[in-house]
Amino acid sequence: MAADRRRTKAPAGARPSKSARPLPTPDPPPVAEAQWLLCRWCPARVGKPALGSRRRRQFGYKIVLATGNDTDRVLELMQRTFFKDEPAVVGCGLNPSNLSEDLQRYMVGDLSAGKALLAVDGADRLLGVCLGGEVTKDSQQKLLQKANDCGDERAATLLRFWAHLVQVSRLPEVLGASRSWEVEKLATDPAARGRGIAKELTVQSLALALQKGFPTVCVFCTSEFSGRLCRSLKMRHLVDFPYSEYRDQHGRQLISPPPPHEHVNIYGDDLRAGHTSTANKSKAKVSTANR
Ligand SMILES: CC(C)(COP(=O)(O)OP(=O)(O)OC[C@H]1O[C@@H](n2cnc3c(N)ncnc32)[C@H](O)[C@@H]1OP(=O)(O)O)[C@@H](O)C(=O)NCCC(=O)NCCS
Q1: CATH number of the domain within which 274 lies
Q2: What is the pLDDT of residue 31?
Q3: What's the gap in Å between 287 CA and the centre of ligand 1?
Q4: Where are the alpha helices (DSSP H) in 81-138?
Q5: Quick one: which atom of ligand 1 is closest to the CA of 200?
Q6: Over 60: is that where the pLDDT of 168 sits?
Q7: 276: Cβ–Cβ under 8 A, 6 or more apart, which residues?
Q8: For 260-287, what is the mean pLDDT?
Q9: Of the spans 80-84, 100-104, 204-208, which averages the highest pLDDT?
Q10: Any domain includes 48
Q11: Is residue 22, in this structure, part of any structural domain at all?
């Protein structure tokens, strides 16, 4: 695992080295390992209590699949949380109240695509959100295109930074798959933090990826806290990227988040491995009833 950890320099706008060659796609691990993978994330699938279920009961929340009807309340939560205190957003000086509606909606994406999960309390109040996405070979280009079109210099810096992270992650080579499910945006209502909501959302999002047949998963942890979360889920640590290395051509640091957020840590994992035989067992415990 240590061999997978890479610290990368970030010359702004640099292209990957031409000498970098994709690693051969690893053989799928045996079924026993796949079950262990599920066991790490989703103990419920192998007959133990679900990760976080004790906390879920204690604090009374459930995880549900988002629909298009949730867009407004998700946007409202993102305005109160992600756009206000996500370290990379804060670090690029983006003013959430100046963020155009178009950009906000772009960042939230299409909730009817069946990739976003919500944590809601007994009165259906929204406590947390986890937007799932996909990293493919086109992701970097799409982000750069959006950066050029968005008409907001700070938002463009953020989008270019995300594009840069996709580039340095070299996910297709490192994970040996052309597409990866991404636990893309994670946010918990400040009043509901520290109850394991983000962790439970992440676990359920990973299980959803498995259900949807994604070969691999990844999380770009721009926050120290989401990094801790992935570490505690024992995901594979792929990249440690210090914010201080992302600079413009004059050497100025472009993203300066508040402490303790000094690094972006990228985590991933492989879902192959007899996953057709284990996917049914691992169905995400996501409620779609009455929605
Ligand atoms: C990051 C965030 C989603 C965590 O939400 P949460 O529901 O409080 O997280 P959890 O209770 O599931 O805790 C997850 C892990 O983070 C750690 N953590 C969370 N907040 C923490 C804090 N303020 N101080 C120290 N550790 C913290 C927890 O200890 C836990 O680690 P563990 O698994 O080793 O116990 C939330 O702080 C947030 O919305 N931040 C703003 C948006 C953001 O930064 N998103 C992440 C971008 S990748």
Answers
A1: 3.40.630.30
A2: 35
A3: 23
A4: 82-85, 87-91, 101-108
A5: 12
A6: yes
A7: none
A8: 64
A9: 80-84
A10: yes
A11: no
Q: How many domains does the chain have?
A: 1
* Mean pLDDT over the full length of the chain: 81
Residue 186 C-alpha to ligand 1 middle, in angstroms? 9
Q: Which whole-number Å values give the CA distances from 47 to 10, 33, 137, 271, 281, in the listed order?
A: 45, 17, 37, 20, 10
Q: What is the extent of the structural domain holding 46? A: 28-279
Atom of ligand 1 nearest to the CA of 193: 8
Whether 84 maps to a domain, the answer reads yes
CA of 251 to the centre of ligand 1 (A): 31
For 173-228, how does the pLDDT look when each residue is reduced to its tens digit (9 = 90+)? 999 999 999 999 999 999 999 999 999 999 999 989 988 989 999 999 999 999 99
Is residue 17 domain-resident? no
**The residue to which tokens 């636990």 are assigned:** 183
Question: Which atom in ligand 1 lies closest to the alpha carbon of residue 188?
Answer: 39
Among protein residues, the one with the nearest Cα to ligand 1's atom 26 is 225
Which residue has 């490192």 as its token pair?
A: 174
User: What tens digit of pLDDT does each residue of 133-155 get?
Assistant: 999 999 999 999 999 999 899 99
- Ligand 1, atom 41, lies closest to the CA of 86
Exposed (0-12), middle (13-18) or buried (19+): which is 288, by Cβ within 10 Å?
exposed
pTM, two decimals, is 0.81
Place of tokens 């640590």: 237
Q: What is the dihedral of CA 227, 95, 12, 263, to 10 degrees?
A: -20
198 alpha carbon to ligand 1 midpoint, in Å? 6
**C-alpha 96 to ligand 1 mean position (Å):** 21
Residue 80 amino acid letter: R
Beta-carbon neighbour count of residue 211 at 10 Å?
A: 17
